[in-house]
Structures are given as C-alpha cells and as structure tokens.
Amino acid sequence: MSSKGNSSTSKDDVCFASTPPAAGLPTWYPLLLDSISDRFSQRLRRASMEVNQKLIRTNWSTGRDILDRQSEQGWGNKVIDRLSCDFRERYPDAKGYSPRNLKYMRCFAEAWPSAAMVQQAVAPLPMGHELVLLEKLNEEPTRIWYAETVLAEGWSRNQLACQIETRLHERSRQATSNFNTVLPSSTSAIVQDVTKDPYVFDFLELAESNNEREIEGQLLQHVERFLLKLGRGFAFVARQLRLDMAGDEFFPDLVFYGFVLLRFVMVELKVEKFELDHLGQLGIYMSFVDDLLDQPGDESTIGLLLSKTKNSVVAEYALRGFSSPIGVTEWAAEITDSLPEDVSRSLQSIDELEAELAGTDNVKGDGST
After folding, report:
1. How large is the greatest C-alpha to C-alpha distance in the chain, in angstroms?
2. pLDDT at 50
3. Whether pLDDT at 60 is above 60
4. Nearest Cα to 176, choosing from 321, 314, 322?
5. What share of the chain is helix, strand, coil (3-state, %, to 5)?
6. Which of 28, 175, 180, 232 pairs as cysteine with 195 (C-beta 3.0–4.6 A)?
7. How do strand 302-307 and strand 263-269 relate by DSSP bridges?
8. Average pLDDT in the 197-211 region?
C-alpha cells in the first residue's frame, strides 16, 4: 500500500521541515522578522483597544437608557432584574447582562453624564482601570485627572489603585521650590509637574535603626517602583557617585536622568527634619554634576531634597537665595509590601466584574490589566 495515501503530514509540516536554518540567512533577516512582528503586535493592540472602546461605549449607552427611564418613571431594581432575565431569554448566548452588571452600567452612566467625556477620558482605558476609577473616586474632576495620568504614565491597574490610595492628586506638583524664579516659565511648570509632596515609598521596610544608606539600598532594590514614584521618563544613573573636588571627596545619594526634562536630577535623602545646610550641600553637588556629566543639549541639573519632615515656610525663604533649581519635599513610608487588605479584596471583586462585563468566563488574578 502506498504511504502517500496514509500520510498525515500537512503541507505546513512539510514546509516547516524544509525551512532553512537561521544561521544561513542574511544578516538583515532578524530586522525583517522584528519589523513584521512589531507590525502584527501593533495590529493586535489596536484591535484590542477598539473592542474595549466599543464595549465601554455600549455599557455607557445601556446604563444611560436605564438611568433615564428610572429618572422619568421612578422604578427600582426589580425592573433591572426583570430586564436582565428577559434579555438573556431573548439572547441566550449573550454574556455580561446580569442584574449586577446592569446596575454597574447604570452607575457608570451616572458617574460620567457626558458621552463626549466618556469618549475622551474613559474609552481609551482598559475596563479594569475604569472599574477602579468608578469604585474608588466620587468626584468627576478627580476621576478625569487619574484617567489622563494613566494614559500619560502607562500605569497598570494595581498601580492606579496604589496611586489613588496614596492620594497622588493631592501630592502632585506640591514641592516647595524655586523653579518659577530660576527657570524659564515654559520649563518651570513642566519641572514642577514631576514633583510630589510627600513622596510615598510604601515598599520600604523601616526600623528604628535605619539610616540613609540603608534606605537608599532599599530604594535601589525596588528601583523600578522608585522610578514610578518619580514619574515617566526617568532612568537611574548612580548611587553614591564619587565626586573628587581638589582632593576632597563627596558622595551624593542618588542621580537620575530625566529624558523628558533633558537634565540630570539629583536626589538627596534625609532621615531627619529639613535643615538649611542641606541646601548648600545639594547645590554644590548639582554644580559639579553640571560640569562633570552634562552633554551638549542637556539643561542644568535639578535637585530634589527629600526630608523626613520640613517647615515649608523656612524652606521657601531658604530657596530664595539659591540660583540652582531645587525642590524640597517630604517622604513617607508604610511598613508593607502589598496593598492594604481592603484594597486587595476590592481588586479581586473588580476582576470578577471585569470578566462578566467582557463576556468571558476567565477571571484574571494578577490585576495587570
């Protein structure tokens, strides 16, 4: 009997078996593969975003219909329960229209009264992020601020929840600084935007014996989370950078580079209250880094002095005598490596609701949407 008729080898298998080895291909082949792969990945991302946006708009429209009818007629949840049952009888294969989901859609439409605002601020976000905004924030301007910041910073859902819990919108742009007097007006606002007061390093494990070096070490152990606290576009350069000034050695705490700011950022960490001599020390470090590290196109170095506590009035007056751009802020820490228990529970419930609204049976457990 001929083996040809019984062969289970497909054309794809034959093609794969005859594929030439990668070692024999031109040197430009990896670039070709990367280019095609990147284009395919972008297409998948765009398709996923389009599906998400359509789903959010549908949820909002459904909630708007329910909310309008309820406002006009004054009926309660019994109608929602009946509506869910009748809809699922009409469309047995449809998912995401449980009473719980319909009530969420109503709350969603109530929280975002304007369809234009939904399209602009919410539709680009993954659904899990929108659920966090809806559950944790009551005021629309605050929700808009976080929605816009998520798009700018690329936070995961867990990161968004952490930033809300630490009230980032109240801490942002709050450093006591001299930026508006020593920097051009077009630059000072941008630099002030990246500051926070206080910085919340909730990943630190503090003990009474902790000194500055130990805390610096913990910051670098969690450097990615530390960079998230600084904001978008920062890269770590050095810790305890050795500066030799005519035989005298100095070691500034942390040096970063801001690719958006186009300048180095020096961070001095103090475990005690802000003192006037801290500014003089930081100013010397900044001048030396300007001479030692700056490349053509770099702007002057910015200093951030992070003290455990500070008198803002004293800091403001002290900064008036400095021509170097410096911000003075406080830092705080929580002795925990994870979200508070109540926040973790809420994120788990968001997992379930997100899966239901998306019409899927799988519940994500990592909260990384």
Report:
1. 98
2. 80
3. yes
4. 314
5. 55, 15, 35
6. 175
7. parallel
8. 73
Token pair, residue 2, equals 């001929």
Residue 25 φ/ψ region, left for φ over 0, alpha for ψ in the -120 to 50 degree band, beta for the rest: beta
Look-up of token digits 């001929």: 2
The reported pLDDT for the residue numbered 5 is 47
The residue to which tokens 């909260």 are assigned: 367
Percent above pLDDT 70 for the chain: 83
Pair of tokens at residue 98: 């449980």
Q: Tell me the DSSP string of 216-255.
A: HHHHHHTHHHHHHHH-TTEEEEEES--EEETTEEE--SEE
Distance from chain centroid for Cα 47: 22
How many Å apart are CA 173 and CA 197, to the nearest integer? 7
Whether pLDDT at 161 is above 50: yes
**Cα gap 322→280, rounded to integer Å:** 9
Task: Indicate the angle between helix axes 127-136 and 29-73, nearest 10 degrees.
Answer: 40
Tokens 């801490």 sit on residue = 171
CB contact burial 31-49 (16+ within 10 A = b; e otherwise) = eeeeeeeeeeeeeeeeeee
The answer to whether 203 and 221 are in contact (CB under 8 A) is: no
Distance CA 340, CA 347 (A): 11
Cβ-proximal residues to 104 (8 Å cutoff; 6+ apart), any chain = 59, 63, 131, 134, 353, 357
Between CA 112 and CA 140 the distance in angstroms is: 7
Report yes or no: 182 and 323 within 8 Å, Cβ to Cβ. Answer: yes
Could you tell me the sign of the dihedral formed by the alpha carbons of 352, 358, 361, 363, in that order? negative
Name the token pair of 123. 């539709």
